[in-house]
Automatic annotation (TrEMBL):
GO cellular component, one term: plasma membrane
Taxonomic placement: Bacteria, Bacillati, Actinomycetota, Actinomycetes, Mycobacteriales
Protein name from the UniProt record: AI-2E family transporter
tRNA-binding in keyword set: no
UniProt organism field: Mycolicibacterium hassiacum (strain DSM 44199 / CIP 105218 / JCM 12690 / 3849)
Keyword Oxidoreductase: no
A GO biological-process term: transmembrane transport
Main location: membrane
Length: 379
């Protein structure tokens, strides 16, 4: 057997073992999706809210009160945005329905008097066929409604789990992480903890940058819609803000809703202008905001972001697309610190990649293993 074949065989079985481990890990995550997804979402929210909790804590506010104040403020903000969007859509629904009715009548007249020259009987027959198709699939639609109700129940359960996990992470996440890493051999325990800190601080930078980019997207698109006089400009901008937390595609998908509203309310010209506005804002985001803001927080190549979103979407749908880039940002910093030859090399790698240098706060220094064991009750 030639050396080349032996090397290829050695690499092949090692790669097969790695691939099998990844498959088992993904299968386990899929089986525990009801638990894994809320915990992951809570971790991302903790990365967003932890700096505010620490800021209040360092200024003398009790830790529990700081967590409660931060959570209540965040819930009030998100609830206010969602309430505003829903109420504005309800208020504007009659006008949109009237616009849709006029548009349908206009399309019907064009089909009759336009180049197609269809008869009213043909149009009526097409409408009757559509209604009959709905009636034929009534049972399937009913099953879909039941599935939707089940999904809503799972969402509520997951939201409760996210809330409880978030509270514990904000209040004592550092102690929890120190306790969990006790299962790691003592010889590499500090390195694992350093890697975890690096990944989490990179996640904090990612969440901050995403928040800023989403806000700028919403302001840009909302301002353009208001100038053009498109109905529901502020609610649509709020949806763009929420959708922008899914990188690259979220703002585009929610922006197309604005295109549909513009088409219904103002016609093709304004719909095309709205589409151009969304494309322009996305170009500014991709060529200006992402390099300046996101690039300094997390050094990830745009191709890696696209592939991560696509893979997450294929594996876990919308949730997978939402979590893919944060997970990639965490692993990007954590793995580089974990495999570095020494802490100085890890720090130099972070500086060279234009990422923020990760340093543990003074109150986050690891305790010796024997002292940490005495504090397991705090975890």
């Amino acid at each position: 057997m030639t050396p080349l074949v032996r090397k290829a065989a050695a690499w092949s079985w090692r790669l097969l073992v790695i691939f099998a481990a990844i498959v088992v890990l993904l299968w386990t995550v899929k089986r525990l999706e009801v638990i894994v997804v809320p915990v992951a979402l809570a971790t991302i929210l903790a990365a967003l809210l932890l700096p505010a909790v620490d800021w209040l804590d360092h200024r003398g506010v009790p830790r529990g009160a700081a967590v409660a104040l931060t959570l209540l403020s965040g819930l009030a903000l998100v609830g206010g945005i969602l309430t505003f969007v829903v109420t504005q859509f309800i208020k504007g629904a009659p006008d949109l329905i009237e616009q849709v009715s006029r548009s349908v009548e206009g399309v019907r007249d064009w089909l009759i008097t336009g180049p197609l020259e269809l008869s009213r009987e043909q149009i009526q027959s097409a409408g009757d066929a559509f209604v009959q198709a709905l009636r034929d699939n009534e049972e399937r639609l009913a099953r879909g409604t039941v599935s939707t109700a089940t999904a809503v129940t799972e969402i509520v359960t997951g939201a409760v789990l996210v809330l409880f996990t978030l509270i514990f992470l904000l209040h004592g996440g550092r102690n929890i992480f120190s306790f969990v890493t006790l299962i790691v051999p003592a010889t590499v325990r500090n390195r694992v903890r350093d890697a975890g800190r690096a990944g989490f601080y990179s996640l904090i930078g990612y969440v901050r940058a995403t928040f800023l980019v989403a806000l700028i997207d919403a302001i840009g698109i909302g301002t353009g819609l208001a100038i053009m006089g498109i109905p529901l400009a502020l609610p649509l901008a709020s949806l763009v803000f929420l959708g922008a937390f899914v990188p690259l595609v979220g703002a585009v998908i929610t922006g197309f809703l604005a295109v549909i509203v513009a088409l219904i309310a103002k016609g093709w010209i304004f719909a095309l202008i709205t589409l151009g506005l969304i494309v322009a804002v996305q170009q500014v985001e991709g060529h200006v905001l992402q390099p300046l803001v996101m690039g300094r927080a997390v050094s990830i190549h745009p191709l890696a972001v696209v592939l991560a979103i696509a893979s997450g979407g294929v594996l876990a749908g919308i949730i997978g697309a939402l979590l893919a880039v944060p997970v990639l940002a965490f692993l990007n910093s954590a793995v580089r610190v974990l495999v570095a030859e020494d802490p100085d090399a890890a720090e130099a790698a972070l500086v060279a990649s234009d990422e923020p240098v990760i340093k543990a706060p003074a109150d986050d220094i690891d305790e010796p293993a024997d002292q940490a064991d005495t504090r397991t009750g705090d975890a």
